[in-house]
């Protein structure tokens, strides 16, 4: 498996090997020993699977607060997504910066998003299926969202806002400034 660090080195792009023949293919998408060599030492406790019918479905920017914060290993079974991870670690030199990567079934790539990042994705193709492992179970009381189009984050989404399909939770998420205020209040 090829593993690369992105602009924020804690976020990793992974390329599992795919062995194809006339029957189909085989791929090892998770290997604890290989991940550990690359500095990914989390134990995953839950798998999630989402399906989006249309291009333009935007899910995020989601995170869970400590002690329920999640590491995520995201891959696409069918379709394509633009995956976004925003550094929300209060003392990080890259606080508020984002890492963006296209993850798709054709390239058979994955992205590792560590805890301390708000995460979201935009579907770029119809009938997109995304699966991801998480290191902590879903905990509704710890779940939060930061506004996907917050100007302080400056994320360049490749679709016009009128083309996007969002949940009420994502439409009404807190601003990045509000998030920073809540972090200062907690510390």
TrEMBL record:
Keyword Isomerase: yes
Highest rank taxon of the organism: Bacteria
Pathway where this protein functions: Carbohydrate biosynthesis; dTDP-L-rhamnose biosynthesis
The protein's enzyme class: isomerase
Keyword Thylakoid listed: no
UniProt EC number: 5.1.3.13
Recorded catalytic activity of this chain's protein: dTDP-4-dehydro-6-deoxy-alpha-D-glucose = dTDP-4-dehydro-beta-L-rhamnose
Any Pfam family: dTDP_sugar_isom
Keywords carried by this UniProt record: Isomerase
Record's function text: Catalyzes the epimerization of the C3' and C5'positions of dTDP-6-deoxy-D-xylo-4-hexulose, forming dTDP-6-deoxy-L-lyxo-4-hexulose.
Similarity comment text for this entry: Belongs to the dTDP-4-dehydrorhamnose 3,5-epimerase family.
Record's subunit section: Homodimer.
Protein name: dTDP-4-dehydrorhamnose 3,5-epimerase
